[in-house]
Amino acid sequence: MKLKQLESLLGDLQQFSNPKVELEQYPTGPHIASRLLYTAENSFGDVSNKVVADFGCGCGTLGAAAALLGAEQVLAFDIDTESLELASENAEELELDINFVQCDISNLVWRGQIVDTVVMNPPFGTRKKGVDMDFLCVALKVASQAVYSLHKTSTRDHVRRAALRDFNASSAEVLCELQFDVPQLYKFHKKKEVNIAVDLWRFVPKRNQGKVL
Amino acid sequence: MRLLTHNMLSSNIKGVTNGFPLGIEVEKVIEKQVDFNPDFLKNMLLKIEWKALVDASRSLGYAELPEEAPESSVIDSDDFLRKLHHALLELHLEEGALVCPQTGRKFPVNKGIPNMLLHEDEV
Ligand SMILES: C[S@@+](CC[C@H](N)C(=O)[O-])C[C@H]1O[C@@H](n2cnc3c(N)ncnc32)[C@H](O)[C@@H]1O
């Protein structure tokens, strides 16, 4: 599938109708979502025939993109019931088969590394401090192959240090810098749209196959 | 919920040291056909916990998987891989619960979605 085609399919998905501020529910736009998955597939081979997990799936854009690019199984996780309903409607609309789990990523316990690749747009941690790092920590435990994630550019040094030193990543690379439009969903945003710089990261976990995590 | 997901989830209640595998309470099981991909299945065999899959598939009413983890000679047989395919990917727990093996706490499964959220005093 071509990048343009992927982007256009993702553009038809429904987005949050009543976003919850405390959960940082803003959609990963089709532009960013399509590039993230397209790069993962075409530059690194981390999507087709793999088990891909979408952490904090929200509207389900990243998981849907993975399924469209040929992931063998897609698992999508969110803490919020309405997000999961929305994401499953979106999956149905595109006739995609996605496995949903309701959980708090911060305290999920997993056995082993069944998942190959994690893709995520975690909450940036502006409402609940450190939740972005919780997501990254868990993602690096469960993925056997790679983790793709978006983090604010202003946190770049911190993210790199935490990934390599504390979360057992063997590599941490910024693939590109993107502009993320956080629409004026929230009253405390004064401007119509807040444009923040985010990094698209690729992390490679160290192997720890078979261990109970 | 596919048994692939079941094979990966563990009870996450504070203080629980042996949270895997989760027991299964069945209210409704459904089957959905998916494409058969032998290479994918062979790769999954290296990652799944065999006994947990066998027991879980039996709870869902499917008793065709052998008790013992398959020998390498069996792995290439079409018959075996089709059974594995069915158990791992085509059976779904649509309604029911997952049960923590240590505490008996139930995690509900509704519309095929397991709810692993914890109460405040379980975190
Ligand atoms: C920035 S949004 C992700 C948007 C998503 N990628 C999409 O395409 O719409 C963050 C998501 O993480 C979820 N979330 C927030 N905290 C969470 C937690 N502790 N565990 C699991 N999900 C969480 C929110 O409900 C929200 O859907």
From TrEMBL, chain A:
SUPFAM superfamilies: S-adenosyl-L-methionine-dependent methyltransferases (SSF53335). Residues 44-135 form the Methyltransferase small domain. It holds the Pfam family MTS. One of its GO terms (molecular function) is nucleic acid binding. PANTHER family: RRNA N6-ADENOSINE-METHYLTRANSFERASE METTL5 (PTHR23290). Belongs to the methyltransferase superfamily. PrmA family. This is Methyltransferase-like protein 5.
UniProtKB/TrEMBL annotation, chain B:
It holds the Pfam family Trm112p. GO terms for biological process: rRNA (guanine-N7)-methylation; tRNA methylation. Gene3D superfamilies: 2.20.25.10. SUPFAM superfamilies: Trm112p-like (SSF158997). It comes from the Eukaryota. One of its GO terms (molecular function) is protein heterodimerization activity. Signal peptide: none annotated. Belongs to the TRM112 family. Interacts with TRM9. This is Multifunctional methyltransferase subunit TRM112-like protein. It comes from Dipteronia sinensis.
